[in-house]
Design goal:
By secondary structure, the chain is mostly helical. Helix content is 69%, strand content 0%.
């Protein structure tokens, strides 16, 4: 009986760890998407495309 209880506790801990891991991963993915959207919506912050950068004439 004691072994089963310990096993259940262990599984609960594992499940909790997994939930935390997934939660953190989802948050990181969401932050990355938000950063990309910011870069797209405000081109002033992103480096200028090559066509707009100053060209040194030879």
């Amino acid at each position: 009986m004691k072994m089963e209880e310990e096993e259940m506790l262990f599984l609960d801990c594992r499940k909790e760890e997994e939930m935390l891991f997934v939660d953190r991963w989802k948050r990181e993915v969401t932050e990355e998407k938000e950063e990309e959207e910011l870069a797209v919506s405000s081109p002033g912050i992103a480096p200028p495309p090559l066509s707009l950068s100053p060209v040194v004439s030879m």
